[in-house]
Amino acid sequence: MKRPTIAEIAARAGVSISAVSYALNGRPGVSDATRRHILAIADQIGWRPSVAARSLSGSRAHSVGLVIAWPADTLGAEPFFMRFIAGLEGELSRRSIGLLLQFVDDHRAAIDAMRRCWAERRVDGMVLTDLWRTDSRLPVVEELGIPAVLVGGPRADSRLPSVWTDDTAAVTSAVDYLVALGHRRIARVAGLPALEHTQVRIGAFRAAARTHGLPEPQVIETDFTREAGVRATRTLLSRRDRPTAIMYDNDVMAAAALNVAQEMNVAVPDELSVVAGDDSQLCFLVRPALTALARDIQAYGVHTARVMMDVIDGRSPQSQPDTPTRLVVRASTAAPAT
Amino acid sequence: MKRPTIAEIAARAGVSISAVSYALNGRPGVSDATRRHILAIADQIGWRPSVAARSLSGSRAHSVGLVIAWPADTLGAEPFFMRFIAGLEGELSRRSIGLLLQFVDDHRAAIDAMRRCWAERRVDGMVLTDLWRTDSRLPVVEELGIPAVLVGGPRADSRLPSVWTDDTAAVTSAVDYLVALGHRRIARVAGLPALEHTQVRIGAFRAAARTHGLPEPQVIETDFTREAGVRATRTLLSRRDRPTAIMYDNDVMAAAALNVAQEMNVAVPDELSVVAGDDSQLCFLVRPALTALARDIQAYGVHTARVMMDVIDGRSPQSQPDTPTRLVVRASTAAPAT
DNA sequence: CTGAAAGCGCTTACAG
DNA sequence: CTGAAAGCGCTTACAG
């Protein structure tokens, strides 16, 4: 199956291949009639430019890379990535940019993967997610001069452009809501401590508690897994002055907490309110259905793609309005029993 | 940031670029000493071949495409894809093959995406998942001569190689188990009827029921969503001779069924046994924890990558042993109340 | 408005 | 064992 080239179009149209190239790329130098004729032929024979040839001459790979550093066994449980990727890819594909996806175990492997990708000229830029507080990937990306977008907010240690959702506002709104219900002992089961957003959320949580004049709240850091959520919940519910409300940094841990509470004979929501940090189907499949912080993850991916294109095309990346996070109230939260 | 080329290596080593190419590709025509010298330099300056250049001269894209035709809103709920992709990508990446991922809404769009990818020479082959009973993608792939692997079993209407798990054995084992517990009225909430595997599983289900001499069982087809699972469960539980056990084609619908049963005051597992068709975290986050058909999805992806490489490299693809599905018994199944 | 030519970074017969 | 040369399919100054 021979795929057609511009040489074939040129032959059919009876012009030079450069004329074809100009016509196809909408550049001046060809008459309107010729241009139309060429476009018609290209369309008719189903011609599309070879990315390899375009890359080689134009020094653009027409692809963007995403290296996900996340252990495979927790990946399937992360509804975030699938939706984020769907949004990212959809927007890239509108511009005929491919998405090259890679999974690795840690940042060392992520750096290797990025180096390789970049050296092989497979991508024009990289999307970095799940940034750590101090992230070994950043100096490498900056040193290699790889165009990149950080998903997770601007940082003092890097000038790379970023997109983010306002975690502070989200956490604050959840605390406000719980306090309005009458809660005063609110705890937090946080995510992976190395992650920047985990720390941002913890900070926002503590600040909100202070604002409301609550006692210094308990915070337990985890690795986002169900097991860690179970352990943290057991610990919190075993305290003499156990919290009347717990906020979790994702949905899996919050769902696991419902089971722990049941085992320990703590009624949800009467004796314990539970807030999930991510919204997914899981939240309305468990009982009671979970109150959760919800955001439009797909739009987040779309947004990231746009900024990535700005960077690649040399436009000053305009950080577009972040998708706001909102609290979806369901059955797992209520006023505390007195 | 100038990325090094073989010309630079040649200059440093004081040989021709063809010598460098031969050395780097492990082909004869260079002395061992020269070869080692060249490899050392390449390694030292962090050289990697430009895929674009290699593609253009070698007519290989060094990438494989996966076009997922699945509405975005149900995607996040599908733990299958994330794990499958992780397995697929991991194995491809071991061979320096990239994975180009695309999401589309339907088969029309999938065909467009594949045509484009192929015409642009972005990929060396395509992975097709979620095959329909009659699937409009197949004739296109065959006509274009795209190397492809079908995920979902060999078919009469195509000679394309395939990988698959034995759905018949899986469904049969689940029916056997339920019958052994004493169930005789077993129903099935099936998936999307257009899908080949939905029909295979329904066929296996009916056959197993017949083997055990059960009455002709109820089967309800759905679109895999929670809502459809809820509706189907309500219908089944409203019947006078309602089933004592229901098998669901995925985990989301099975989880939703637990809530329906509770609303309708049907005790699980005493009055109703529930079996989920996929295993995921969801199964042990809900209560009672769901008995489920589990398989190693990541291995399935690895397996698919291997067959894909066989196809691309012109080896006769050897369909390796399928990953067996096993029934994981949890708390949602028990002997029926008499 | 149009064509001939060089070049992107490799691979690969083909001579020496 | 090694080098000079053509070619993969485009883009893009540069002449006409």
TrEMBL record, chains A, B:
Domain of life assignment: Bacteria
Domain HTH lacI-type: 4-58
Any one GO molecular-function label of the UniProt entry: transcription cis-regulatory region binding
TM segment ranges: none
Gene source species: Actinoplanes cyaneus
Pfam families cross-referenced by the UniProt entry: LacI, Peripla_BP_3
Keywords from the named record: DNA-binding, Transcription, Transcription regulation
PROSITE patterns: HTH_LACI_1, HTH_LACI_2
Protein name: LacI family transcriptional regulator
Stored InterPro entries: HTH_LacI (IPR000843), LacI/GalR-like_sensor (IPR046335), Lambda_DNA-bd_dom_sf (IPR010982), Peripla_BP_I (IPR028082)
